[in-house]
Amino acid sequence: MDVESRASSSPPPDAAVDWRGRPCEPRRHGGMRAAVFVLGIQAFEIMAIAAVGNNLITYVFGEMHFPLSQAANVVTNFVGTIFLLSLLGGFLSDSYLGCFWTMLIFGFVELSGFILLSVQAHLPQLKPPPCNMAATDGGCEQARGIKASIFFAALYLVALGSGCLKPNMIAHGADQFAAAAAADNAKRLSTYFNSAYFSFCAGELVALTALVWVQTHSGMDVGFGISAAAMAAGLVSLVSGAAFYRNKPPQGSIFTPIARVFVAAYTKRKQICPSSSSDPVNAGVCEPAHLAGGSFRHASKFRFLDKACIRAAEQGPNTKPESPWRLCTAAEVRQAKTLLAVAPIFACTIVFNTVLAQLQTFSVQQGSAMDTALGGAGSSFRIPPASLQAIPYAMLLALVPAYELLLVPLMRRATGARSGITPLQRIGVGLCTVPLSMVAAATVERRRRDLSLSAGGAPPRAMSVLWIVPQFLVFGVSEMFTAVGLIEFFYKQARGAGMQSFLTALTYCSYAFGFYLSSVLVSLVNRVTASRGGGGHGGWLGDNDLDKDRLDLFYWMLAVLSVINFFCYLLCARWYNSGGADDGCDASASAQVAAEGDGNGKEII
């Protein structure tokens, strides 16, 4: 099959079918009526997983009796695995199963994990004997053998299910608007992504207030059981909308065409890009205009891949066509270049998610060492430390609609972009503000530690837990900009390439690397500072007692890393936007893409 027939035989990327496999009807399928069911499963799923993940360190440390630093790594590895497995979910959806069936299958996998966690937390014979880890200085019996095996099996069933669900919920919801008129598409997509984040915040808020309160007062077994019930409700929401969905058919392996580009470019690496006069067969193949269909921004970048389009010889009726592994289409080269171009933007969000990991681990323990009573020490009402993470989400439930209804129209008039503020600008705002979260955390931790150590033999003085609210609030605002901007950015790059779920999964992959980086930094900092006598005998984070650790110094280190990361992002975003006006595209093509709000047009600058 030659290159033209391969290009023409590919299914159109915007083709959609209903649940019976018939072509969709615009009036019956898609739109917000269908997307609301996807928003339903997103809210219930995040409610279930957040109630487990955000308070997991309390269960691992207090009931499974892992040392504090090891418990923190268990949590970050678990959350990191969820987000890394999103790549698998995106691949299976785009290549073989489609979004709906991927969500349905792995939704039941996640449900089974929640049920197993609830059973283990309920049965005493599946847990170590009760023991106070703080009082015994880590001398409690740690979960091992069959008990640890059941725990990790349940935990990673949840990780597998949640990871494969996440990118498909976002992509499937956005696919419901693919039939919109080009002039409205960018606006409706931006509104949908803000609605999806609102749904996310609502689920997080319920999880971090009601469900964490249940875990604290009724036991983790009841809390895990409610998470299972929430997941079941999400699956009901997903199935209820089946008759209204626009389903994007899978298009075969998404990795094979990209791999072919690299193989073909390597095998022809010694070829010289011909001029039109020397080789009419390959005239213009290596020129940027050859890849500039749709105003392709990256046509002048990664020029070595252009050689994948060079023909070995002129094709005639008796000539054997070149193998697809030696001759690629311009569309396949554009796809490969797009993946390479977004990689630096993706890398710059990893440190951001390392900061998030601290708020779900050490900041929870930081709150546990403070006065959690509201209304003074004599008050009977106490805030579960894990519920502090609900504060930014409560604020964001008001900020997200205000952003959509007030800020976006103002920015739309100021910038001319239909989405108001462009995705790259939105990411930059979040990366710029996130260091302030770690500055606030370090300042409060230093003050808390000094007050506790200055008590001497007297009862230690405890700061109110409300002092750590600012670090959560600042990060919440940063996440509203960075997380939504990154999802919108990747989704727009995937349109027309049949990779919506996979590229959306890169957003969650950033979370994975951020949490894994957190685990590496914790271990590395402990090793380095222990050898230099920092903190306690085990380094800055080596003890189970925060008064002996130097968590404040660890926070300062992350603040510095976040500032460096922001300046790296500015360079990467500038490089990404370079060449947009100099790719040799004709004016009509550029105007058309800009009107459609394409990821390679004005909307991304």
From TrEMBL:
This is Major facilitator superfamily (MFS) profile domain-containing protein. The keyword Membrane applies. The chain crosses the membrane at residues 36-62, 74-92, 99-119, 146-165, 196-216, 222-245, 339-359, 390-411, 423-444, 464-490, 502-525, 553-572. GO terms for cellular component: membrane. It is found in: Membrane. InterPro entries: MFS_trans_sf, POT_fam. It comes from Oryza nivara (Indian wild rice). It is a multi-pass membrane protein. One of its GO terms (molecular function) is transmembrane transporter activity. Residues 1-23 are annotated as: Disordered. Keywords: Membrane, Transmembrane, Transmembrane helix. Its main location: membrane. Belongs to the major facilitator superfamily. Proton-dependent oligopeptide transporter (POT/PTR) (TC 2.A.17) family. It comes from the Eukaryota. Pfam families: PTR2.
